[in-house]
Amino acid sequence: MKRSPLRVALPWLLLVVVGVAAAALRFGLIESSAIGQLCSSHHGPWWCSVRTTLVLGFLHNIYGVTALVGAALALLSRRRVLAWLAAALGVFALLLYGAETGALALLIGSLRLLRLQAGPRGAPTEQHRHGQQQVQAQP
To answer: 73-88: b or e for each residue (b if 16 or more CB lie within 10 Å)?
Structure first.
């Protein structure tokens, strides 16, 4: 049974969406000096607490650790959603100042997702395996 190209490409397109959203958070909300000055006053808008939470998240490396936990779950499981989640958390951590851990989680999640998308026929260990390994007598 052949899968549609959209179904195969959808997880990768969603990873791009996660990357764009993380970049928008980083450059629009965290690094903006105007927003930083606005939030430093005592009467800042409600979303200044969201900004503070995001900053505390990367200061304490929460995004990187979460991405590595997701990568470990992706390696232990055969579920595509966990592989995608590891890659998405890796992209998020990578863009929010957790370059080393985010890159590792992105790599592990992407490779695991590729492997699971390939199915059992694409696995190198399964390609040349025969059902009943019998030794034949020499001719």
So the answer is: bbeeeeeeebbbbbbb
